[in-house]
Amino acid sequence: MFNGFNTGPMPPSEAELATQALNEAAIYRFPSFDSDAAVMLGLSLRKRFRASSRHVKVRGMVISIQTIAGHSLFSCTVGELGARSGLGDVSLDSWACLEGMINVVRRTGHSSFYVEKGLGAMGKTPTEVGIRTDYTVSGGGKHISS
Question: CB of 131 within 8 A of CB of 104?
Answer without folding.
Answer: yes
